[in-house]
Amino acid sequence: MKKILAGVSALAAATIALVFIFDYDYLFKGIAKTYFRGQKSATIDDLKLFPSNTVTTANPKPWTKDSAYNKKPLPEHLLKNLADTNTASLLIVKEGKLLHEQYWNGYDEKTRSNSFSMAKTVTVMLLGMAIEEKKISSLDQKFTDFYNNYEDSEFGRHLTLRDLAAMEAGLNWNEDYKNPLAPNARAYYGNSLEQAIHAQGFKQAPGKRFEYQSGSTQLLGFAVQKAVDVSMAQYLSEKLWKPLGMEQDAEWTTDNSGMEKTFCCIHASPRDFAKLGQMILNDGKINGVQVLNREFLHEMITPTATSDGIYGLGIWINNDNPVKHYFMLGLQGQYVIVVPEHNMVIVRTGSYKDQPKNDRGRPDQVKYIVNEAIKLYS
Question: Which of 7, 57, 101, 131 is 20 to 30 A away from residue 273, measured at CA?
Fold first, then answer.
């Protein structure tokens, strides 16, 4: 028995050593932050589990409520869909006024939840701000201007910021949310984003093919942060959170060095997410002030040639639906949807795990919610 116990102990020690040697120690953190909490994956309530930088607001401007605010109940089939998909919130803004607001499962208007990949859209917006301020020369500036170690890579030396924003980077990256050994898990739970992302390398030349990769937006975040020389949270506060009069501070989770996870993880309220959508709807303006450059925003919502019409720069696009729309999209069904024809913004947050994406890579639920909202409020 002593020999067996000694053998088991030696095997366990060797396994742990290999985990650290091959830089998989983030797995221990991932297990502690998921399975030990009764979860199987990341959640919209992960804020307390990670360090974060505060995105401060100033002079909050609450939404004006429409005269018909919450007076028209949602139809039963829509309510069932929202309940069955573990929805936390649904907000509908029409003509700049809050028309419908509803919460489930203990969430309310003050709850800050995880944006997941909606942060990718915000990161591209901040890229536009940095270009407007001439801290970045253009979308076509080379990534090597910020990280010269990429000059030694056959493909890396040609990588541009546009490639990163358009998901055309060609990284050796498998966007797998269930595999604990995939780079997404290392980036989400690991200690160093630079170690997690820079180690991936490339599998093809940039600018040739659309492939959604979280690593692309993290690289973009590295470049923007270097260019503006403040934290991404501070830059977001100065350029969007304060000008838009957000109702609450937000938190942007970071690695151990304080670098924001720009591929995900801005924790904010649904009402404040809706203000981002309203700014997009208003061609980058809020209260008559041009917050985001109009031409840059139009590039964001214009489908790229390689995406077959479904993606611009950090934004998903659906021009196939009779009611055209574009949207910010996060894991488990975080949506900020803009419907220009009907002057409408829709926000949905929640925990829709394993959500189907049958609509040419876009979630079917987005189109469903858009069509239902238009029937109800057009």
Answer: 131
